[in-house]
Amino acid sequence: xxxxxxxxxxxxxFVVGFSIFAAILLIVTIYPxxxxxxxxxxxxxxxxxxxxxxxxxxxxxxxxxxxxxxxxAAAKRLASRLSDDDRLAMKEWLVGAGLLESExxxxxxxxxxxxxxxxxxxxxxxxxxxxAKRNYYVRLDASLDGLLATEGLSLxxxxxxxxxxxxxxxxxxxxxxNVSQVANLRVLALGTDNFGRDVLTELVTATGVSLQIxxxxxxxxxxxGLTLGLLAGYVxxxxxxxxxxxxxxxxxxxxxxxLILISFSIGQEQRGAFTIAVVIGLTGWVWTAxxxxxxxxxxxxxxxxxxxxxxxxxxxxxxxxxxxxxIASYVVMALIxxxxxxxxxxxxxxxxxxxxxxxxxxTLGQMMNWAFIYQAYILGKWWxxxxxxxxxxxxxxxxxxxxxxxxxVFNPALRE
Amino acid sequence: MGKTMLEVRELTTKYVTRYRENVYAVDHVSLKxxxxxxxxxxxxxxCGKSTLALSLMGYYFPPLHxxxxxxxxxxxxxxxxxxxxxxKSVLGAEIAYIPQAAMxxxxxxxxxxxxxxxxxxxxxxxxxxxDIYERARKLxxxxxxxxxxxxxxxxxxxxxxxxRTVIAISVMLFPKVLIADEPSSALDVTSQxxxxxxxxxxxxxxxxxxxxxxxxxxxxxxxxxxDIMVMYAGQIVEKATSEEAVFDPLHPxxxxxxxxxxxxxxxxxxxxxxxxxxxxxxxxxxxxxxRFAERCKYVMKECTSLPSIPLQEVxxxxxxxxxxxxxxxxxxxxxxxxxxxxx
Amino acid sequence: MKGYRKYFLNKLAWFFVTLVFAFLLxxxxxxxxxxxxxxxxxxxxxxxMSNATGVQAIYEQYTELFGTNKPIIEQFFIYIQNVVRGDxxxxxxxxxxxxxxxxxxxxxxxxxxQFPAIIVGWVIGNSLGALAAYLRxxxxxxxxxxxxxxxxxxxxxxxxxxxxxxxVQLQWFPTSGGxxxxxxxxxSRTFLWSVITHYQLPFxxxxxxxxxxxAIGMRSMAIYELNADYVKYSRFLGIxxxxxxxxxxRNAMLPQITGLALAIGTMVGGALVAEIxxxxxxxxxxxxxxxxxxxxxLISAVTLIITLMALIANFxxxxxxxxxxxxxxxxxxx
Lengths: 416, 343, 334
Fold this sequence. Notes:
The complex is a heterotrimer of chains A (416), B (343) and C (334).
Chain A (H helix, E strand, L loop, with lengths): L1 H9 L1 H23 L17 E4 L1 H6 L2 E3 L5 H9 L2 H13 L12 H11 L11 H14 L8 E6 L6 E7 L3 E3 L7 E4 L10 H37 L1 H16 L2 H12 L6 H11 L2 H15 L2 H8 L4 H37 L12 H10 L2 H4 L2 H29 L6
Helix pairs in contact in A: 2-8, 2-17, 5-6, 8-9, 8-11, 8-12, 8-14, 8-17, 9-12, 10-11, 11-14, 12-14, 13-14, 14-15, 14-17, 15-17
Chain B lengths: L3 E13 L5 E13 L3 E5 L6 H8 L7 E10 L2 E2 L5 H8 L4 E4 L13 H10 L7 H14 L16 H12 L6 E5 L7 H16 L5 E6 L2 H7 L2 E6 L2 E7 H6 L4 H7 L42 H5 L6 E2 L5 E2 L5 H17 L1
Parallel strand pairs in B: 3-8, 3-9, 6-7, 7-8
Antiparallel strand pairs in B: 1-2, 1-4, 4-5, 9-10, 10-12, 11-12
Chain C lengths: L1 H31 L4 H12 L3 H15 L5 H13 L14 H37 L1 H16 L2 H15 L19 H38 L2 H8 L4 H37 L5 H10 L3 H29 L1 H6 L3
């Protein structure tokens, strides 16, 4: 046993796979201890907030203020409000208005704005300008107001009686708040999804749930496959014929289709994560049964098994003591494969809208499905789908890597 | 004394494992087989006899590697030739091999005749299909095999027939030396007999000039070969004529292997080589001195303190690898036989 | 020749047996669930549809189609009869279209997409796997992990990656549909070009998925064959390496064909989901629409068609295998 373990851990592929898997497990276990918020809490009003640190604007206004004189502050402010596209559009208008192209330098913001303010006139007719474009320039011009201003902003509150605004303070451009002194800030490392939920929290929970589904489904499938394979292989005869027939039947009839039919028939209300896992397990046992049967047949007439038979041991005892130990490594490998393919099956089902009930827990497949329905792929909201996809791929990749490693240890022909 | 057909001088080959460890499975082996004679190689499984068979071909592929030594076939040194020259002009034509597992030795998706075509074409590019067929048919008939076999797939042949077909293919180019690696081990008794008969016939009709026969079944060796060489842990431990090796073994390991079959009439067949307690040493780190010391009844201090034990020659071309003198060994064995007789 | 005939008859019989069971499962599974299917349909109808006459028509149609008042055996024969006639009833979600029409409009897209993609993936995957087994070394070390990674992406994952990279970022190919949404199907150059560009991303995502799995399988097979006794024996008879490599790859390819026959169902299932990502107008998207519209007759028909496609593909591959493996003709003759 110890020797086998040592050999397994000498396989580079197994070690890499195992490390990735262990890291995922660790994150899935520890993260919920640190963040106790429910993964489906809707915190954002609006869809797909990009990843970042969100600081309360209100609280930063009332937190202690510091004055910092930074040279590049004005330039950065401008750059963030005036995009390259806008600059090019401005240049285009100015050229259209008769200015020389060589005189306009889009990188010199102050000069560009100066030219713009001096020349721009919404009433001016530029040849070839569409209405939509004209409106765009009007909006752009409005947004440029005060861009070069150096004075700050006034803070005001409303008088409850008269409704008049009373100035309560000033914010200068050189005013800074210390982030650690702002009462409210929220790190959304992966932004929010289409419902306004924290993607990171959702992702970690979903990975955990998907793993659980995988493990339950894998165990169910392996248990059924192992039992049927042992029966068919060891008992033989009519039992073998029947089981082989059923196995071959379910090999050619796509299990995915069965999954769809069963999941749909169960109905949305009955579909918990556990139910889905069991259904996936029920449709996924065929390959294990087939392989176990083949292994058992090759073992059935070995000397040690015959000896046990002659000694009058019961079938159960022979199977447990003389057959199982020899196929144990194989069954473990099959289980690993079953788990990873169950995770993929759940994801596939969820894409079709047949995944677990959406109200209690997220799964990786459902995150993909939501991202798909709300067009995150096309809108470029990568944080809504890429982490979930990466999680599915990593879990499945790590398990298969472990499996390949094990295979190379137990089937020496595949070694170099 | 006939002409020397195969001579091996100090041949050493090694396996390289995936962890880059060297396993010297054939360690400075020298042997000679003369025209018209056959040599048997005996030993437990894992003693290096099958590796020796592979190494004698002079054609190495991973994980087996050539280290040092020479192989001469009919006086020509093939260990100095390039692998491609060996393939073209030696393999199959000068030296041929009958594999241990002849059951799977034929490509399952090819008719026998097509395989024979590939074999002959590998050495003679210009021969016509018809000539190949004629040659194969004649050879099969001489060896008592039906020509119909040529048109069959291996899966259509019985085990015994497959083995005999493999033997016939091996001698298709009339090689000088034939190496048979346990050619009969997986067969039933009747097929075994036919295979042995066929191998003898090959020598008689002159299809091959010399033969090496490897087996762990001693009775076979005694009946088939003229000389016997006993291997242990990659080394030769004894060389003698079959008669001597079986009835008068010198090395304690040979004694252990052969000792129990002095009276062939008494259930010869059932004697298994596992009669000696213990297992051969791991060749990754072979023990210093005598490699058999750990399992030897007569072990002395010098056996393990010397770096290695030389092969010593005795009268009549015999040799054995042991520190105990010939006479003393005989005395020890006699005393033991005597005490056994008392029980 | 006798051997071949026996093999083909055997496979044909098995094909019909699986066909019967496919019908049976498709018929029984929904009925095993608690509640009577027509009642369930009625309940679902009440949620979604606004067209009152439509609801009534479908309800009556379905009571008759299911024949729920008749014994279960009779129901099954009614079902078979309807299916054979191609009568799957009306679609709930696309009323008054018939299910058969909805499927007829989408099945061609799926056939033209999936089967070429799976075959191309199989050929490329097997070539790469064989090459890796033969060359070993660096190529193998690079190919194996990449193949494992690719084959472990869910099929829709590969679709998403291609969509985002080539559709959204690089904008080389359109991201959804089977042809430009502003075009009307016709035999014009614009339309054909549109179809071809829309074909690329779904096609290659299915190909890539197939490559991963096949390359791994072929690599193991070829390594296994390279260690076979006949390889060693052939080498020692002086046969050229090139000839031996040909033996090995031919022999390793045969189980890969059987493997394809067995895996075709799973591959089709995965490819359907890839279709969905690209809103490709095939069966996958139709299935999704059926599920979203709680359209039971549509779902039932699509799943049946998919199963039939997989069974037929399986059968055809087995027949092809019979011609490729010379042992079939020889072994069965005894």
